Amino acid sequence: MLGTGPIPELLPVVPALPFAAALLVALVGPKYLQGRSHALSVAAAAGSFLISAVLFVELLGQNAESRVIHLTLWRWIASGGFETHVGFLFDPLSAVMCLVVTGVGFLIHVYSIGYMKDDPSYFRFFSYLSLFLGSMPVLVLADNFLLLFVGWEGVGLCSYLLIGFWYEKSSASAAGLKAFLVNRIGDAGFLLGLAGLAAVFGTLDFGAIHKAVDTNASVTPWFAGTSMTVRDCFASPLGLGITVGTAITLALFFGATGKSAQVPLYVWLPDAMEGPTPVSALIHAATMVTAGVYLLARAHFLFALTPVTLAVVLGVGTLTAVIAASIAVVQRDIKRVLAYSTVSQLGFMFAAAGTGAFTAAIFHLVTHAFFKALLFLGAGSVMHALDNETDLFRMGGLSKKLRVTSLTFLVGAAALVGLPPFAGFFSKDEILFRVISTTNPSAPWLPQACYAVLLVTSALTAFYTARMVFLAFYGTSRVDSHVAAHVHESPPMMTLPLAALALLAFVGGALGVSGVLGVRLHAPDFVGRFLEPVLGATSQHADSEGAELVSMAAVVGIALVAIALAYFLYVRHLDAPAKIADAFSGAYRALSRKLYVDEVYDWIVVRPVGWLSRLGSGVDRYLVDGIVNATGVVAHGFSWLLGRLQNGDLQLYGLVIGIGIAVILFSVLVR
Amino acid sequence: MEAMTLPDLRELIPEATISISALIAILVGALARNYSSARRIAPAVALIGLVAAVPLMFAVPHATTVPTARFEGVFVADAFAVCLKLLFSAVGVIATLVSVNFLEAERQANGEYYGLLLLAVVGMMLTASARDVVLLFLGLEVLSLSTYVLVGYLRKDPHSTESAIKYFLLSSFATALLLYGLSLLYGISGGTSYAAIRAAGAHLSGDLRLVAMLSVVFLTAGIGFKATLVPFHMYAPDVYQGAPGCVAAFLAVGPKLAAFGALIRLLVEAMPGFASEWVPLLTVVSILTMTIGNLVALSQSNVKRMLAYSSIAHAGYMLIGIVAAFTPGVTADVRSQALAAVVYYLVAYTFMKMGAFGILLSIKPGDRFAETLDDLRGLGRRRPLAAALLLVFLLSLIGIPLTAGFTAKFYVFSSAISAGCYTLAIAGILNAVVAATYYSRIAIALYAVEPGRGEPYAAGGISLKVALAASAIAILLLGIFPGRVLETALQSVRSLF
Amino acid sequence: MTSVWPLLLYYLLPLVGLWTYRRGGRTGTLAAGISWFLAAVALGVVIGDARSFAVISFYLLSLVAVMTAFLVVTGTNPVYGALSLIGTFTGIAGVFVVLQCEFFGIVQVILYAGAILVLYLFVVMMVDLPKENAQKRGGVRGIAAIATGLGLLALVVKALAPLGMRLQPAAGASAEPYSVRAVGTALFGPYLVPFEVASLLLLVALVGAIVLSGRERES
Prior knowledge:
The complex is a heterotrimer. Chain A is 71% helix and 4% strand. Chain A contains 31 helices and six strands. Chain A has helices spanning 7-10, 13-33, 38-60, 92-115, 122-141, 145-163, 170-201, 206-214, 230-235, 244-259, 268-271, 277-286, 291-298, 300-303, 307-328, 334-354, 358-385, 403-417, 423-437, 446-473, 481-484, 492-507, 515-521, 526-535, 545-572, 576-583, 585-592, 597-616, 618-631, 637-647, 649-669, and strands spanning 69-79, 82-90, 218-219, 228-229, 237-239, 242-243. Chain B is mostly helical. Chain B has helices at 13-31, 35-59, 79-106, 111-129, 133-151, 158-189, 194-202, 206-226, 235-242, 245-251, 254-270, 275-298, 303-326, 332-361, 373-376, 379-382, 384-398, 404-418, 422-446, 462-480, 483-494. The longest helix of chain C is centred in the N-terminal third of the chain and has 35 residues, at 13-47. In chain C, helix 2 runs antiparallel to helix 3, helix 3 (53-74) packs antiparallel against helix 4 (78-98) and helix 4 (78-98) runs antiparallel to helix 5. Chains A and B meet through strand 1, helix 6, helix 7, helix 28 and helix 29 of A and helix 6, helix 8, helix 9, helix 12 and helix 14 of B.
């Protein structure tokens, strides 16, 4: 084992390179680099990717069981029995994540050179992008939950900065704020989960907790005072029929729903499309939003103990998938279609995680990173050609003028729909079959119901994808005439990453062919085997070959029907959709208003908090007004001052103190 | 008549040093022929005094190794006191550094200013060392009296004068309440030292227990006023807003630190027997303090005022740790960790809050220093460094990881959970979410596109820049390498038991 | 528990004062206060908790202090206010004497009633303060304040009542009376540090007064 060689020391370099680039670009960018700002960032991204690749090769060279590179840097937080280090862990799971993040990240950096070319804040963009590319490896390489949380917040910060990148647009600033706040709500759950874990295990190290769970070691949780085994502790009731283990894992999952845009916290992601398109591709499709899935995979040993949470994860994932897919069907904005599609696909990943099939979830995460980044970059390329037009109904017939873009977009779309042999087919099929073949003791009916819903979602996915492709690239052109004159293919800096991603989306599925296809085609399940030491073995469910084949055929068949329907509606009879929308105006309006979720949140959360705040500051508001009005009359300062004193604000404050004491005394003395 | 020996006064040397430099600063102010010769000497004297006191704290052998009760227990310089005094020195240094620029801009005579500032620091130090309610009271009064004058230092500014009068009157009210509580305590124990109170508290009859409760409530009111606990908080926003900017920075930190230091020592050394009276009371107060502070901060558009409400909320978070420490039935380990978390929180809070107030003094759109959100709009473009520093302070106040604010919250919340106070922990975490909203409003204003006003922003002096940069660095260091400080805090707290 | 009633009556004094002051002015207030007080003491005596001369003197003297303090707060003429304050201080001095702290009693008279109040009066005379306008009282806030005050009063009485109206040494206090010597020994013995800190407090007050009132020095 080479673990003692220079290799572990390379780990911190993966995040350090982009961080250094971010700092340098921020410092010298505005004055010296200007239009050359990308050089440092792209070089850092390439360096990070290369180092990840080197480490990955190193990992492959070892025995399957000992595939771990671990480096502890320094003791970070220690208090009493609790200790946390800053340390990095490179095992198969983080290796896969790290490769995807740095690889896709690198491609998107290259793409951005062309896309952001004339932006006045060119250097700022690359500085933020590098900051993100440094934070994300911290998230996936962390060897404990707390450092993971650091990366988690770091990518969040970059996400808000980049969503609000064009802050002169007020919608962009508002979207950044929304993303920030919604994520903070999720983070509160995450923090509670962390606190619970720390209180039970006395550590937040993945390794230590995993070991304690595996060996069912005895721990001394906060509520008991005595020591008990992990399983007993997790099974102890906490009230309301919830056990300790369920509470902790639910809290962690709640954190994941924030970052990964699941019900009920998905509302920020569609608005996040206000950011530049490469950002949408990198952060809001390929990498950051999948952090929640990664978190669940990382903590799979905890979730495995709590079937109730798994059932919730499955249900939430499925619900998100279908809601987002149905909203995507009526969106006019190409980026919003893709955003809802991302939410929906993340729902698939969570559904997989909810059945305990974490390998399938991660595999779908990888293929999704490829094809969704590709689709976003393709959309960006279209916008580039059309003067930032995003309305699908002002496109059409672009395939002739944008050959590379349309071809690669088609590959991405096929992968998203899940047509064989594109990457999405393998990963989505795996998820669907996992859902139907699982059993959950706490909700036996759930997997079947979810399977049915996910089938419908597949059809919706095929429909909205085909609708998007047909509207943008085929049929008659509805482009504004003055824009149509100079529609042009994007420069090679943008098309090359498209081609690279298209290749990955095309062949990426071959990495994880499993199940019946794996057996029949004698294809090795690279991803599954590679992740096995971390996530556990994938059962080769060969005994249900028939069922699996039927399921597969059903999925593809439904998808083809949906595509045909989309072709009929959006190429042949473009006036038909409007008629249908008229016929079902209520449903259409609800869907196009995103099922009124924003409005509902506004009423049940935002406004009451506002009321409370105003209620609390009623006295203050009066005072503020007084002070503001009074600044004009400084000349009368002293008399005004006396007047105010006698008006009794002071006495009011004194009175409040008195009432406070009286209430406290009453509660203390009279009982 | 028996021979009287004077007690050994060596442990008072740090306080004496600072008091003497206060006198020198005042004399410099009085004797200097003109304004310009005094304006640099006085702050220099103040800084020398504060810095010189630090090695002197360690030079005197103190009670970490051998617990001694000097002055019959009136005054003690154990590790806890020294730890707090180090922090108080830092508060004094930062307050001095941020004041230089402000006083020059306002063209104020400054000898007395620095003298009073130093005396306020001495008052804080005395409360940290007090083992007798008389000394505790006097220390708090030295602190209060100095701050009344500092708040009203800008005599031509009616806001400053108004704030001073408000602060003075309400604070006197609170002092009276504190004194009543202390007198009841004396009544039931017959002594003023913490040891006597502790001894009496160990075996109280039912009747006296009622009196003890009464006393606890009044002490909470008196100390809670200084610590801005709800419902004794209402003065804080008015006073911070009206006070000169540099005084607001001190006021938001100094009295609060002193109050929490005193509260910890009082609870540990004098009133451990009254824990069952304190804990439910402080639990409710803590939740109210966090929630009201954060909720009202949401609707503020004046940043000074917003920061004032935020400092109220932070007092609530700190109280969580104290409640956790004294929840009946916790182990000694959990107790000292919870108290160490509070001390750590105090350290983190000092830098982030003084930094945030300090930034406002480096920005001058028009003829007065920045106060409202509009004043900060577009700062990111005009003064990128100041905006970045403020961003660091805001991130820490929100509690983003790798900043001191996160680590502090983490320690406090996790100690609450290990003590079994989930309600508090959950309330704290929910509050942290709400709080993120208004801090991010400031952050967003910083990077908004339209600068609020056309006039150029004044740059702060070198001393202000040093103070702000040092605070920001301290916040990051505390966030990345919190171990050292927490370890020190833990040791210092253990010296109490 | 029987002692609640006299104690309650005693603590209700200021309120009676307020009521009579509204109706009948200063003299009425004093008369009502005294009779009310006597009723309280009488009740106490009848109930049998308070017998000694010291107890009666204590309540009598504190009555003086409370009633005059009330006049200070409610009066509109600053000179009358200052004079009433002398009454308060004298009353407190008397309480000290009753509690066998003669030294403090004397200090109280000399310092407060003598020096400080004379200073007050000088200031009042010199700056020629106008007679304060009568303030509007009452309203919702006034009612709330009265209710709060009464509530607080009831609660404090509830907590203190079980101890009765007797005067007794605090739990661990030495029975030895305070002599000048004892005070001196305490000040330079255990209380040396507080004593020194008190001087610091005076220094702060001095400097503060100069800062807030002195001539502005600018460049």
